[in-house]
Amino acid sequence: RYLYYSQDVTPGRVFEYNKDSNDEIYAINRLDREKNETERFVRGPGGAIRPTPSPDGRHLAFVRRVRFKTVLFLHEIESGREWPLVDDLERDMQETWAIHGVYPTMAWTPDNAQLVYWGEGKLHRVDLKSGNVTGIPFRVKDTREVVEALRHKVDPHPKSFHTKMLRDVVVSPDGKKVVFQALGRLYVRSLPSGKAKPLTSDKDVHEFFGSFSRDGKRVVFVSWTDEGLASVRTVPASGGRSSAVTKNPGHYFDPVFSPDGATIVFRKGGGGWLTSPLWSEDTGLYSVPTRGGTPALITRSGSSPHFGAQGDRVFFTGFGKKGKRELRSIELDGSDLRTHVGSEKANRMRVSPDGKWLAFQEGFNAY
After folding, report:
1. CB 59 within 8 A of CB 112
2. Residue 169: which residues within 8 A CB-CB, separation 6 or more?
3. Interacting residues of 298 by C-beta distance below 8 A, sequence separation 6+
4. What's the distance, CA 122 to chain centroid?
């Protein structure tokens, strides 16, 4: 009558067991096949996976994470009582893409007295009354054909190679130059057939988010080191040494010039995980004079700032209800917030330099 199955209820979460927490990744549901009704049957900290009911229907075996161990549990169906049986199982796969299941299957003996399971690379059986565990020896007779491995000579550290991925590709307003990022550095190249060269002479840094001024004479970008974090900088479009615009380190993204070139707007984000968590407060969109100075907050939320025809308003992407992307604009002093366009599927929106057109990306197409 009943069908038990495990459901991923909080995908992608990594956790460790906490007795005061309700964190769970998986839970076990029970489907009443006569009434066609489903109920959440087993849940709780550490998840609940691989449900295996006993033949007499009195017990349900399942696997749960307890601190750093994967533990075999028993659930008494009539009373709801649960207790651990064995704690030497292999690590379950609740945090991963478990295409082969989150743990190998188990099986009851026909008399409901023992449970057969896999752990530590072996087969075992555990007696429910005594809790005694005994190994189940087995041998596999097999024949395999071993062939010579196919090997190619590969130089792991060539002096030069052709890059096959470009990022942050931006063409100058006059169409004569292009700036792009490859292997962590920005390069500039004359169009249509010039030779690419490093944009800056800066050493031991990574460079991102290059953007031209409207007259095409300068480029603003973000410089990064793991020790010093990010800096918003400018450099002549012809190349050379860059100069800093921001004074404090931070996590900076997407800097752009205003139409008159006097102001730079950028996004300040937060760090953590792979990058330093320091200098992560007061995130949002900021403006700063191109000659340098103290950044001024425009708005606490938004991304992809850019300008249309005028320099007193900045356009950016915000999120509305149910994650709907919206093209918004705001005065540089943070006043007069407007929403212009909303889209459920567009993932990039950009206003033309003359302020008359909107380009947007939806899926893998541009409109």
Report:
1. yes
2. 178, 179, 180
3. 265, 284, 285, 286, 287, 314, 330, 332, 333, 334
4. 36
Q: Give the amino acid at 26.
A: Y
The letter for the amino acid at 276 is S
Which residue shows structure tokens 């040494």?
241
Q: What is the DSSP letter of 122?
A: E
Residue 281 parent element (H or E): none
* 266-316 pLDDT, tens digit each: 999 999 888 999 999 999 999 999 999 999 999 999 999 999 999 999 999
**Rounded Cα–Cα distance for residues 131 and 59 (Å):** 15
Instruction: Kindly state the tokens that stand for 272.
Output: 């953590």
Amino acid at 28: I
The residue that leads in pLDDT, 316 or 121, is 316
Distance CA 149, CA 145 (A): 12
Measuring CA to CA, which residue among 302, 298, 295, 214 is closest to residue 258? 214
Write out the two tokens for 101. Answer: 């299941």
pLDDT digits (tens, 9 = 90+) for 227-261: 999 999 999 999 999 999 999 999 999 999 999 99
**Which string of DSSP letters, residue by residue, matches 236-254?**
ETT-B--EES-SS-B-EEE
Sign of CA dihedral 237, 239, 240, 241: positive
HSE-up (13 A, CA, CB side) for residue 352? 7
